[in-house]
Fold each of these.
Amino acid sequence: MSRIDDLIRDLCPDGVEYKPLGEVAKYSPRKVSAEDLNSTTFVGVDNLVSQKRGRIDATHNPNTSTLTAYRQGNILLGNIRPYLKKIWLADRTGGCSGDVLAVEINDQYSKLLESRFLYYILSSDSFFTFNQQNAKGTKMPRGDKEAILRYPVPVPPLEVQHEITRTLDKFTALEAELEAELEAELEARRHQYNYYLDELLSFKDDSNTLWRPLAQLGTFHRGKRFVKTDYSDHGIPCIHYGEIYTRYGISTSSAVSNLDESLRQKLRFAQPGDVILVDVGEVVDDVGRSVAWIGDEPVAIHDHSYAFRSALNPTFVSYVMRTDWFRRQKAKHIARTKVKTLLPDGFSKIHIPVPPRTEQDRIVEKLNHFDALVNGLSSGLPAEIEARRKQYEYYRDRLLTFPEKN
């Protein structure tokens, strides 16, 4: 850090100028034919990886004949559900779908701003928070393209940019190496966990366990829509369907969000002991994702969610819904439109095992212990991986924060 501190003190003692992103960069104006693209050069929002993990090869072809062209050094941003933090610094030329923004540095700043430095700026949590706060829509929020161009970008001298990107590149490589080792161990444990989950909940050697369709075991209750402006720091606990993908595991006793108390009469609630299901998703596996609500009070749910209410242990049901055999059955009852949608009538006919309640409780206790080791965010390997990421993000954000020039 001392080298960078020295450079900043010597080259910009009065602070650093901040410019709106739209002054230093623009969205790519160029177009490319879909016929000129392949799986390695086409980038849709589906093959950008969440949490700033770059890209993977596309698994499907573009659905339009003409796309936005990008080139090496452009920064590609996933513009659907900004909280997924999808970003990639292009190392090739190609084309991207309309749900991906290709940001390129303006000609007049080409010798004043490094694309890699700008990539690190737009990879910061402060940028993604800004983007999420300005997003439009509730069903599938999108970043506001005009607001994004207002994001303030520091433009220190090139020598400072060079040193920061060099330092961050080294730190990123080291962090990636350490994280890859932890991820490999975690993946091995997850395979073991999934095998154990399927074996324990298959009851294939137990002819006495009854199997019943969900419709015979309980009832489904749809939530009611609420929007971003309804949120409050305190008030009615709520679970938005989008949070079930990213913020919750098998079960939860507390909600991370709240709604204004004045809305109570307009909302619909999951009761303690319900299992909350998502009815939409970008991919099939997201649809029907569940979390058991084991809190002490009702929780408001969105209209893209259902509360499944039964006398079963809700965490047992949530575990059952994570098994491979259940997910295969579920996939038969999903409408394959652009946004995948659950077909509740068919879904309710899926059979699940119904052992005695004491056996459900015993299985939940076993699986909870294993789940904490493999998936728990406060313990085990996920916690160690998350700690590494937070350490990196803290260091990166510190390097990219400058005193602003008056």
Amino acid sequence: MKILNTILNYSNRTLYQETEMFSFTLDSILVARFLNLNSRRKRIVDFGTNNAIIPLIISKYTEAEIVGLEIHPEAVALARENVELNHLEKQISIVETDIKDYAQVHNQEFDVVICNPPFFKMEGKPKLKEQPQKIQARHEVLITLEEIIASAAKVLKNGGVLTMVHRAERTSEILLLLERYRFTPKRMQFVYSKAGQKAKTLLIDAVLNGKEGNDILPPLIAHQDDESYTPELLAMFRD
């Protein structure tokens, strides 16, 4: 069933979500707001755009061209509908493609890659009863972490930026893969469900062939003791 939602407290942003498909989560908001935008970044590509939630948010803060890549035809149709719903056809385009195939023919075309990828490795036969698209959104069925980083290295211009959200437990692997594909981490921030708990999420910016130097930002705490969102997180839910 298709449902029309506002995007939290963002003005002039609404989108359709399909209950049988993967809905956007807090991670999409986090990575969209973590992205460091400036006037030099003219072309942005979103790897695995789903319903176009990330392009819809970042378009509020930049006039850059945004391309959303999505492999599932149903999600492509929904993303295009959401772009039209928000009258952003001149800024955002949705391409139905496999990220790996797209990267083979679009070398050094983008200033930024942004990605909320599948977090979990697919080890053995999945014991999941969800819709295939939901499984593929969470698990590395169609694309692996290494393939995402390798594809980003192909489509980015020299000095381009990969901005990604991922599980904190995979930080070591992420850093090793970034180095393998000539990325230098520049900004990192860990997100915690509550103060005093282990980090749950990693937000990271990495520059292709960048100079050394890395800023570790203050931790972001998502929830207060009563389970409500912290003021810092709520600030990301509005313009």
Amino acid sequence: MLSAETRAEIADKIVRCFKDKSQIPLLHTAYPEMEIEDSYRIQEQVIGAFLAEGRRIKGYKIGLTSKAMQEMAGSTEPDYSAMLDDMFIAEGAELARADWADPIVEIELAFVMKAPLQGPGINVADVIRATDFVLPCIELVDFRVARAPGMDVRDTIADLAAVGGVVLGGNPVSLRDVDVRTIQGSLIINGETRETGLASAVLGNPLTAVAWLANKLADFGVSFKPGDVILSGSFIRALPVAAGDDIVARFDSGFGDVALAFV
């Protein structure tokens, strides 16, 4: 475990990286005694610093939702982070590549809550009852802790699960009208389909991922509130983006397209 002073020092570094779009080396290499609990405490301090500036939590993201990604990160479960109000980006936005440290893009489903959801003991049926609707989205992943061989879950958790931003689509779909496991999505960059996947790649069912997070947050006395947006995890391989890229996420089952561009 790290000392409280060291955790505070790391949190300050990550906050600065968010603000100046810089990066720091792998944390677990610089601090070999670092544990996963340290990472979550650092994450909490980073979020706390932003809340003190007047920003607000508007939802949560879930990462590492495939076994392959968990094994790569040295984890046995997903990771997560809160998402703040200014991380939500308008559909069709043009984003300056210079405003991002090391962006990659993913496609996934966002669950919008209509009722509180408090773990422990939450299951898929509870998630269905508490969900207002589901939206397609593009998640922008960004790294304050620089990607390098050996990067593991201790690095990503402290870095707010590499959260960058999210672009929500404008076509809400009720869970009564769709089996989310069967939804197919494709990532199209500059007119070329680069990745295609099924939502069932997310822990077998994106609803399972949302239930997992509700139960995990209960360990910290946190619950979902009405209006919270929960990103359930990517069902494709994340891809890097560059200035000049036009990005479209295309979903079936009535979800439609989500688009943005980097300039």
